[in-house]
Amino acid sequence: MLKIENLHASVEDKEILKGINLEVKAGEVHAIMGPNGSGKSTLSSVIAGNENFEVTQGDIFLNDENINEFEAEERAHKGIFLSFQYPVEIPGVTVTNFIKTAINETRKAQGLEEMPANEMLKKIREKAELLEIDRKFLSRSLNEGFSGGEKKRNEIFQMAMLEPKLAILDETDSGLDIDALRIVANGVNKLRSKENAVVVITHYQRLLEYIVPDYVHVLFNGRIVKSGGKELALELEEKGYDWIKQEASV
Questions:
Q1: Is 222 helix (H, G, I), strand (E, B) or coil?
Q2: Which of 10, 75, 166, 175 allows an S-S link to 148, with CB 3.0 to 4.6 Å?
Q3: HEC string of 59-126?
Q4: How far apart are CA 66 and CA 47, in angstroms?
């Protein structure tokens, strides 16, 4: 699904990623953890095609296709979804209109007709119910006046509607109380399948109690310095990151 080989990336001539190697197969959930400033959000932005970051070396493949030269929009149409840590507010554009436009633009890029209105409405109702979203919520302006939990739930709603091949969740748990965390995580779990893959970026083990990863990777100083199973997240929760830093500097 996703293959990253020796990825180096910089912003404003400062190197952030210093040789990332990662392989994510269909049906898998990978968690990426690490201390602040280790390059986690940069990695998610680079995979999604954020033009503020420059790839200086290495390759990114989606389903064996090199996407290095693809714009962010092309990557989205190919099936990459990024859930933002801080979703932006778009006054005047309702949640429903935003998602209709996103779906139909992707269909257009794939050479398909627009989704029929009745089919769209049915899908919106199904996914809103799945994520315990109130109907009134869908007619509000995108993220305007939303609480932290509402913004994150809206991101997962977009993911549910777009049905991406690769979903990257960048610190979806930040600012969420336990109830909101549970709803968001349940939504992600219900959307998991053998045809898609999920990369979860988080500081904390608590999210991984709800979204159980197949693999955990620790990012430090722009490199993946340790990988393991879900027990690695528990070890990090217990010991912190100092031992990882010491191991990495040996």
A1: coil
A2: 175
A3: EEEECCEECCCCCHHHHHHHCEEEECCCCCCEEEEEHHHHHHHHHHHHHHHCCCCCCCHHHHHHHHHH
A4: 11
> CB-based contacts of 234: which residues, under 8 Å, 6+ apart?
205
Q: What is the domain count for the chain?
A: 1
d(CA 160, CA 211): 16
Q: How far apart are CA 117 and CA 100, in angstroms?
A: 9
What sign does the CA torsion over 160, 166, 102, 82 have?
positive
Give 151's DSSP letter. H
pTM to 2 decimal places: 0.88
Q: Render pLDDT for 58-74 as a digit per residue (tens, 0 to 9).
A: 999 999 999 999 999 99
Asked whether the beta carbons of 233 and 216 are under 8 A apart, the reply is: yes
Contact 167, 192 (CB under 8 A): no
Q: What residue type is 23 in one-letter code?
A: E
186: closest CA among 148, 244, 133, 143?
A: 133
Provide the residue range defining the domain that includes 165.
2-249
CATH of the domain at 131: 3.40.50.300
Give per-residue pLDDT as tens, 64-115: 999 999 999 999 999 999 988 778 888 999 999 999 999 999 999 989 999 9
C-alpha distances out from residue 217 to 5, 12, 30, 177, 201, Å = 15, 26, 7, 25, 10
The CA–CA distances, whole Å, from 221 to 2, 43, 53, 224, 249 equal 22, 12, 16, 8, 10
Q: What is the DSSP letter of 146?
A: -
At 11, phi and psi to the nearest 5?
-135, 130
C-alpha to C-alpha distance for 94 and 153, rounded to whole angstroms: 15
